[in-house]
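Dear colleagues,

For the upcoming journal club I promised to circulate an example of a predicted protein-ligand complex. I picked one with adenosine-5'-diphosphate because it came up in last month's discussion. The inputs are reproduced below in full, followed by the predicted structure.
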Amino acid sequence: MARKIAITNQKGGVGKTTTAVCLAAALRASGKKPLLVDLDSQGNASAAVGLIIENDERTLKDLILEKGQAADYIVATGWTDIIPSNNSLKDLEERLVRRQAWEMLKTVLEPVEAAYDFILFDCPPSFNVFTKNALAAAGEVMIPVDSGFFPLLGLKQLLEEIGFVKRSLNPKLELLGVLACKYDRRSSLSEQTYETLKSHFPDKLFRTVIRVNVDIVKAQIAQQNLFEYNPSSKGAEDFLALAKEIIHG
Ligand SMILES: Nc1ncnc2c1ncn2[C@@H]1O[C@H](COP(=O)(O)OP(=O)(O)O)[C@@H](O)[C@H]1O
Ligand SMILES: [Mg+2]
């Protein structure tokens, strides 16, 4: 059965999508089969894995709205399978809120779970209905934080929200770990931040840090797999180490 990991932080720009996309690639490079689910109407993860979604194409919105078969909505890209999203996801938001539909994602994914080793949810930068659906469907939560920018701000609220979903919808939900992203080895700030995080999450901070690496950005802009774009980059090295840490503990 797949390990289902929600990658979430209500703060934008911390590295959620980068983690989702590059971790999927690293898991694939480690011999695992990943499925990525894009839960952000900005569709950044979908774009990063090379997709350009036209308006008439099937996305997560249609899967949930039409209660379709997930298998029909999965797109196989060069490095991961993905259920893509685009701007149309917004249309769904209000409907789901009105119906208090927190477990739609969980339900639609059940039939395909057995086909994957990992299902990664790339969450939007807010605690909205899609984040809630991801937390209700996931077994584990991963929180990327920006090592250089007050990473503890907002974490208390995020942990409260996660606790709320755990109590009300998904008692099995566990914190997999906090991930220090955009780590700058030359800056004492990153090191201080890591130590501060370590004191708050002694058993839940990943040993692996994701260093600042321009190849990560360039690969995203080129819509290319980092492991093909530059397999010897620091980014590829860090995400492989992260995959290993997640697979082996
Ligand atoms: N390790 C990194 N090194 C350099 N740039 C990064 C790194 N991680 C993320 N970025 C860049 O930071 C920006 C925000 O990252 P993103 O993953 O989209 O964050 P989020 O999904 O949390 O909003 C993007 O432009 C991305 O390319
Ligand atoms: Mg994002």
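Two points we might discuss: Residues 12-18, 44, 125, 181-182, 210, 212-213, 216-217, 220 surround adenosine-5'-diphosphate (ligand 1) (CB under 6 Å). The chain has eleven helices and seven strands.

See you all on Thursday,
B. R.
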